[in-house]
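Changelog excerpt

This revision adds worked examples to the README so contributors can see how folded entries look when concatenated. The first example is reproduced verbatim below.
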Amino acid sequence: MQHTQNLVHDAGLGLRRSFIDQALATPLTNVSFYEVAPENWMTLGGKLGKQFRAMTERYPFICHGLSLSIGSTDPLDEAFVKNLKSFMGAHKIKFYSEHLSYCSHNGHLYDLMPIPFTEEAVQHVAKRIQRVQDILEQKIAIENVSYYAAPGQEMTEIDFFNAVVSEADCDVLLDINNIYVNSTNHGYDAERFLQAIPAQRISYAHIAGHYVEADDFLVDTHGAEVIDPVWKLLGKAYELYGVFPTLLERDFNIPSVAELQREVNTIQSIQNAWRAHNDQLSA
């Protein structure tokens, strides 16, 4: 099975309908790959469907799911996974990632809910991830998510996350902002969490902004600029594990393309600095 780092590289950007015209007219030269939520694009025809096809013919893409609800007790939506496989094949999209959460219980909840950090949940979720991997015939990456409550907690977030990815034998989508948000909201050390991630499983990373509700309560919105402590945490991840593909997420309050490119440039500059540093160490 191919590793994502062989499929995409450098800095990426989540593709949004609001700037697809601009991205096609004037290529964003600093964006090496794009990511989409397949649910938002799978059924599109017409002009947007043609534009999406034009983008996937020019650039590497990753699918990042929103609705698989991998932690739910509802039956796994295998029809969706099969449609996803066809969609990825049609657009030559090589990789899929999902959140370690659930968004359905007898119907969609329209929010990503935390899975209880229990051994029973580890086994349940891992089996569902394995089934998705069997249908897609490839590994997927699972993302560490932000959470605001931990009902029925039997283990720490990092122990639960590591147990799931180990049991499922899947890859990791490392969300840097989620680590920062959770470390603030739940009072743990972000760097220590980062140090416990299984390095060999990291496929790529997300970085994003968040909303400050209070000093000790942050909300993961993807609706603001990335802040300095989150950029520093990304640098720490590169220091620990080497440079891996990293994608900027922006879902709300989407700014100008120039502003998005400025943040993508920041990813690249941090990547380049750590590449140079690592080259010096190995010289």
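The second example, added in the same revision:
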Amino acid sequence: MAHTVEEKKKLLHRVHRIMGQVAAIERALDQEAECSDILHNIAACRGAMDALMAEVIEGHIRYHVLAQNGTATDEQARAADDLVSALRAYLK
């Protein structure tokens, strides 16, 4: 899915961070931490998942929806930018 080596590294870094957050949730549950602490950990994990989702959706739009051979019109490029912005705002 990643369209460049750098994008792949960035996405994998996000996944590793999410894995750490999920592990923290598991530890908190196992140690019977306060509900508020567990909820904060879950919210942080959800935010990280939403950020990963936004990155993948943006890549899909830019590399699979818009033509990569330079034939996309300015209007199509603006529409893609608007869609990406709307999705990022929704996923925050």
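Reviewer comment on example two: The chain has a mean pLDDT of 90. Residues 47 and 92 are 7 Å apart (CA to CA).
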